[in-house]
Amino acid sequence: MEARRVDDVRVSPAVIAAAVPSATPERLLWRRTRFGLGILGISAILIWWAKTTIGANWPLLALPLIFLAAVKFSDGMELLQRDAEQSGLAFKRPDTLFARPQGNSRRVAISDLRVGDWVCPESEYLKHTRRIRERREYLESDYKRRLEEHAARERDEEARFNRELQEWNRQQSAGDGRHPGPAPQRRLFDPPYTPDLPELPEPDTFPILVLHTKGKEDAVDIWCMGRDVFTLHPDDFALRIDPDSRITAPKEATEYADAISDLLLLAPTTWSKESALTKTLRQRSHSDKNIEHAIRACIASGFLLHGRKTGRRRLDTLPRVRSLLRVSHTTKRERQIRLSPLGEAWARTHLYPMYPEAIPPSRDTMTYNFMIFNAPVSGSNIGGVGNTINNGQSVSLADLAAATVALLDAERHRFSEATDPKALIDALEELRSAINESQVPESRVKKALGVVVSVAGNLSMGVAGNFIFEAIKATLSN
């Protein structure tokens, strides 16, 4: 299969950013107002019940004050975050990111699929419509049989009519004075009725988010919004509704694209504190505004999962009331988050959009995907300015050491989470010293890499970090 552009095989970060609105002052005020209206409705019910109980009208005077207090003391950002979490739970709606196109579906091969196409596996559609198609085939074959029977009766009637007409003409022309009787009549037969065939339903299509090639196979995992992942092989087909136009993100969403790329590449694949990831993104020169928006957008569109039962209190939406009551709480950045399987597929496809090539590994090189970061790492260096080494290229030990140094420098603030922070720092400096030498000392580098794997292996550094750790383990096993 031929290589394709990265935007053809994974949804653009700018499109993901458009899943949630920007946290503008107007948007925050409107969200707080909606929250106030909800509190007002609940309060009105309770006050109306109190009014009917005590028979006084003065409790109604508290309704405007309750509404204004709810608007004033609520946290708009926390409310937007909760909206994103609710959208993430209900992201089965396929039109969250893409508008459903109009038109008929057509059969296409997997090489013709692109992100944004609304597709359905042909085998799945055939399975779901089997009874309808069998019913249609039966009615059509029965109609064809009745047509043939009708045609046979018409032919028999035509032969009978011709024989009787010839005999009647012969008797009439005989001249023996006998009347031949009335002329024969042709009998007419009603044609068979046309069956009312059941209509085949339109395929239940969903928009493609990621086309993830499976290792060195030609099979492709197709991740769609609104349904589970499915796999197609080269000889399989899909039913596609051509989009009215290719998906483009609004201009205001493009400013969050770099933050979303870095977030999905560095987000942990196991449950981890959101504050650690936020700190890492800040060190990559992303503003708090962009980080907040990126996290909300990725949660709302299903690329990130959040721990709903950790780090969350009812009063988080009312921070001023919470502080007045001196309630002990954890902030929202202490919630647990991790990449979803969809997010992992997106990150791997972003790092490696091309179809794999089978290359026999040599003894001193490896063929794993990982990133060589430009230190200091910033903005779009991940998958952009940085040099990407994929399994179509041989990677030297020096390149692997340089990539490890860049990754550890970017994650230095998390060394305290390692099992032996001092040993990790010593290994980092050993690697830094080794890559600056004209001849890279193989034994020293491998020893330092072994320390990094054993000491920092429990740190979750996202998909980009996983590539490097997998590459290190492969090198040490040679």
Automatic annotation (TrEMBL):
Q: Where is this region: Disordered?
A: 168-197
The UniProt keywords, alphabetically, are:
Membrane, Transmembrane, Transmembrane helix
Transmembrane parts of this sequence:
33-50
Q: What is this protein called?
A: Uncharacterized protein
Q: Which organism is it from?
A: Microbispora catharanthi
